[in-house]
Specification:
single chain; 482 residues; BirA Bifunctional Protein, domain 2; Rossmann fold; five-stranded mixed sheet; 16 strands
Length: 482
């Protein structure tokens, strides 16, 4: 019911006068509307991934879109804090604002007095909060999946939006490397089911930690990881030049060592070669090789699965194995480059920022929006992905509607989506509707069909049609299912 203050008493009154002064409708930058066809394809991706999550024993949770700013800030670094969407306090949000900071136009200082909430930036920090708040109710290891939108005030571009969906799976409260192997299998099974060929890359934080002393300490190690992470963009020589300019001790020779190992074909051969560097810490390297050997021995994926020693993205955050998934460029338009479509890793102290120490976790995410963009560009969605209705009943006159409704109800009881065209109009108009909706089958019910107690079923894909007695419809249901 409309609010009384608008006084739309007569339903025939036009809304137009009430909206004359309104500006032309539009969307905030970095957000999008999704029509039915797009939504059906997105639901296809979500359903495929969710099915794999549940097959592996993960259980769903949801958290609010809005979190306290105290929960979010300080968890993503200075850059992340800048990209958080802040929500102004209710009512007169300036009433309690710090006047000095307002006059100084010091936005960082005044923020705490005008905003105490924000939109979630990812699903990992909300997970940590959820675990801490519900730890007495949860069974550990806690295996959860979460598929929800997140928001970042980033610069919009292809494959990067301000509102986008993440599909996360995490195991909290277990140090076992079996979890890493299980998560890699989830990647492989999900992308195989989607028909999307990918490369799953893996590395380990301890590989780099083993060289911390060799690189002059933690500062040199951190800078080294930042620079080699550019390898996929600037290549070996570009990284070597930047390492030399950064003047990190032994960085160029270490990069040469790791690069040469990366050229080896076998993952196990790469692991063997890693142990040959005389300056590596044996303890740290042994931990990395042990974990990676477990994963490689347990996972036999259909997609390409490689140890990539240049993979350093996220290693300032992750403490063990780290993963990244990129699409196979074969089948994509030339020049199409959208970056990674998944990633993750192990973090040893997920809940420590909220006061619950020593809770290890490991997790992965799927980037729904990028996966959609790639599948659309490669034209690999199955024909059924955007088809929601399988069967349209076309009544040619009013007397045919009871039969049409009876048939449609029968199909629905047998899990076949069906609908009745709502008016007895010309057949062409009804079939045009079916074609526009990608409905593959139409049942024509006219005077002759009613007389003979049958329906004429037209296959709108092949153009063929046949008559089926109404009493025999149950025997033909298999023809109309997906």
């Amino acid at each position: 019911m409309l609010n009384r203050k608008y006084q739309f008493v007569n339903p025939k009154l036009s809304f137009e006068p009430y909206f004359r002064s309104m500006s032309k409708p539009g969307l905030p930058s970095g957000t999008r509307d999704f029509g039915p066809e797009t939504m059906l394809k997105r639901k296809f991706i979500l359903g495929t991934i969710e099915n794999v999550f549940r097959l592996h024993g993960f259980r769903p949770i949801e958290t609010p879109a809005v979190e306290n700013l105290a929960t979010l800030t300080g968890k993503y670094g200075d850059e992340g804090d800048q990209l958080l969407f802040k929500i102004l306090n209710n009512g007169d949000f300036l009433a309690k604002a710090d006047e000095v900071h307002l006059r100084e136009k010091n936005s960082k200082s005044v923020l705490g007095s005008i905003s105490d909430r924000g939109l979630r930036y990812d699903l990992t920090v909300p997970l940590a909060r959820f675990v801490v708040m519900n730890r007495d109710k949860l069974t550990f290891p806690f295996k959860r999946y979460q598929m929800q939108p997140v928001w970042r005030a980033d610069r919009p571009q292809k494959g990067r939006y301000r509102e986008f969906w993440q599909c996360d799976a995490d195991v909290v409260g277990s140090n076992s490397t079996l979890n890493e192997a299980d998560l890699i299998s989830i990647y492989d099974e999900s992308f195989t089911a989607l028909g999307l060929a990918v490369e799953i890359r893996i590395n380990h934080r301890k590989v780099f930690d083993a060289f911390a002393t060799f690189l002059g300490g933690e500062a040199g190690l951190s800078r080294f990881m930042q620079l080699i992470d550019k390898a996929d963009k600037i290549g070996f020589d570009g990284v070597a030049r930047e390492l030399e300019a950064a003047a990190i001790p032994n960085a160029v020779s270490l990069w040469q060592f790791l690069y040469e190992i990366n050229q080896l074909k076998s993952n196990h051969t790469k692991l063997d070669a890693l142990q040959n560097h005389p300056q590596a810490s044996a303890e740290e390297m042994e931990r990395a090789i042990q974990d990676l050997n477990v994963v490689f021995s347990l996972v036999k994926p259909q997609n390409n699965f490689i140890l990539d020693l240049s993979l350093a993205r996220g290693l300032s955050y992750y403490t063990g194995c780290v993963f990244e998934v990129t699409p196979n460029p074969n089948g994509l338009p030339e020049g199409f480059n959208i970056g990674s479509i998944g990633g993750g890793g192990r973090y040893d102290n997920l809940t420590g920022v909220f006061g619950l120490k020593d809770f290890s976790g490991v997790g992965i995410y799927f980037g729904l929006d990028r996966i959609y963009d790639i599948m659309e560009a490669a034209n690999i969605f199955p024909n059924t992905a955007a088809s929601d209705v399988r069967f349209l009943a076309c009544a040619m006159d009013e007397s045919a509607f009871p039969v049409a409704v009876e048939i449609v109800n029968l199909l629905r009881k047998n899990a076949i989506s069906a609908e009745v065209y709502p008016s007895a109009t010309k057949l062409k108009k009804q079939l045009d509707y079916a074609n526009d909706r990608s409905i593959p089958f139409a049942a024509i019910i006219g005077e002759n069909e009613l007389k003979n107690k049958e329906i004429t079923v037209k296959n709108l894909t092949t153009g063929t049609q046949s008559s089926i007695a109404i009493e025999n419809i149950k025997e033909n249901l298999h023809l109309w299912k997906f």
